Amino acid sequence: MSPRLPLVLLLLPLGACVATPPDDPPLLPDAESDDVIVVHAPFTGDATVAVIDPSTLQISDGLLGLSGSDWVPQTADGSVWLLGRYGIDVVRRYADTEFGAPTFEVSTGAGTNPQALAWCGGRLYLSRYDVGDDGGGDVVVLDPDTGAQTARIDLGAWAESADGTPEPAQLVPLGDTLYVALERLDRDAGWVPDPTGRVLAIDCVSGAVVDEYVTGPNPDIEPAGPALAVRTDTGIQFLVPGEGLTSVLEPDALSGAVDFLGLGAAGDAGLVVLEQGGDPGNEVWCLDLRTGARELLDTRAERAWSVRSGPDGRVWVLWRDHWATGEIETGGIAVYDPAACSEITDGLLVFPSDPAAIAFRSGS
Description:
The protein has strands spanning 33-40, 47-52, 59-66, 71-76, 79-84, 90-94, 104-107, 114-120, 123-128, 138-142, 149-154, 168-174, 177-182, 185-186, 192-193, 197-203, 209-215, 220-224, 227-232, 235-240, 244-249, 258-266, 269-276, 282-288, 294-300, 303-309, 315-320, 332-337, 342-343, 355-362. It is mostly beta strands. It is globular and about 45 Å long.
């Protein structure tokens, strides 16, 4: 992952327990996802895996302990996966959310820092962020039964500097096309993003790059129906495959420097979390991804860490203690309905340590 280091690292205790959501949690009978997988961890220390039932928001915690904190859950090909990122460089496959022994665990290559998995066109794709002993700055195809690498898509042609990698991060499949976001950070200049990022379209059957979109700096992509919502360091864009990008939220619409900009989407409805100008307060906005119309929903003192779109049309925001407030805020997860511009959770879903990563296992 690209670094977002706090000035103060606050260590919170880990524990194995069954956590409960706030009193009288809302029932969500129309939720389509089977499970929400969460990794929670302090910034340094070890991580723990939990699962949330999206219909009741009930949390089952302490399901699996992990050495180190830089782990992310993924779902693909009907299974749950765990990627050990920086300095871990492994991928594990689990048959279900009981998290017994993994079906397999394989190295992704020393120093390759795996970022995301996606199942598309009957193939398992993995993005590798770094240049390591076995490559990097690429997307590879893995055998889903063994984890063996069967093909490699070299993305070095899109590197913005001499660091050798365009920093491929998120993967989003739409039909038989896989979209990969290239952050394009110049590490030799202090991880400064190039003025333009890239979103590449890969044919899932052949593995060929078939289209390229020039975005704002440091893009992050979320599925938005048949389109993509693109968050950059300078605003929000909307990508319709085959048609191109349109700008939804321009930089001059934001007052002051942006410290954090997160985006989740459900069709044309978006949810934006914004922190600006050194002010530790975070604003939560509802955004029309077609027209740019927006409405302020909430403000929070916690620090937004990640904003992710669920397959049920809801957006899940991971909040952590904010290093700049002088107070210790309890981190947790809030769930929002961007179409209705409302918060579903009544208080945060909390864990023994702050949430770090999330994935969704869709109905099967």
